Amino acid sequence: MIKFIVANKNTNRDDFMSILKAQLSTHELVLFALHALSYLGIQRDEKKYILKYCLIEDIPEDFFDKEKEFDLRDLFSDILDNE
Description:
With 83 residues, the protein is mainly alpha-helical. It contains 7 helices and no strands.
């Protein structure tokens, strides 16, 4: 869906991305973020979409246990520091 919105030149991408982001659950946003960190996500440079459209800003900071799992904000610190 994100690829379709970005590829479509005849639409207001920001508006459509806002609508899409509003429809995604926290878990779906987390899955997108984790995919962006995977081998395939890195190959497709998906982190740029997370940066451009602020896709992880609505994920609660305590979604993952920072001691037992990982800190999503730390993994995307390069993006979040630019905000």
